[in-house]
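User: Sequence for SH2 domain-containing protein below. Tokens please.
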Amino acid sequence: MSCVCVKISSSLHLPFLPVSPSPSQGRVPFAVPDKVLWPQLCEALNMKFKAEVQSNRGLTKENLVFLAQKLFNSSSAHLEDYNSMSVSWSQFNRENLPGWNYTFWQWFDGVMEVLKKHHKPHWNDGAILGFVNKQQAHDLLINKPDGTFLLRFSDSEIGGITIAWKFDSPDRNLWNLKPFTTRDFSIRSLADRLGDLSYLIYVFPDRPKAEVFSKYYTPVVGGKAVDGYVKPQIKQVVPEFVNANTDAGTSATYMDQAPSPSVCPQAHYNVYPQNPDPVLDQDGEFDLDETMDVARHVEELLRRPMDSIDPRLSPPAGLFTSARSSLS
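Assistant: Structure tokens for SH2 domain-containing protein:
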């Protein structure tokens, strides 16, 4: 018996799906399969992920459950429930995921790309939780102290990373920042952006932010003006979002803030009413393009070409291509 292999990189192959070379069984010898079983695809994705990100921290069982839920549009939290399920090529990289304008592979490839380009140390440090959705982020943070935050991969933006954090206010107790993309991280790093936001205190579950990220902060270099020009500094600024009710007995804020319209109240964190506030997108998340993100304005003025994620439209050559090898 021979098997179909998945090409993970130029030097790495994974035995993928056993295929009988016997024409009597009604299959063309060594033909590319129309479908592959989810467990084998999991192994291939994990090896591809570690090779691309160049990390020993691979995909956990929880990560694979998240990916299965995304691919199969399922709510089951048990990896075993997917063991007998198969994935077609169209499902993998031709058909858009339900409710989104991208394929499974495009989304997964965007995750690998942004980690590889900008966040490899943070992924290796375990600082990026990554594979959780908005509801799961809420469940993880809801009973944590104010200032606890996590970093997750965006559903709405390929290669995007969003910050979710806990902070009780009259309006809500969980907050989601509009996703940053590789374009944003080319201007200012994730560590520096987190360092700018003093109200983000603990990396989920309970690690002090400074302990995790301070070693990656860009040093502030002082100096006198050159040719009469004072060098500006770029700093992440988020609109005011806390405590519209000053009679509640708490101070308006204990954090750095920029003047902006107050956030509209929400009855429930994932039920978003019609929102007239121009600084929020339709999901009730902050839209930094409409706020005081100085970095974006500097980029527009300078008109510098910046790197941006251009997700590959197809997986690496050979992912569903057969190659003859012996079973291990």
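DSSP finds nine helices and nine strands in the chain.
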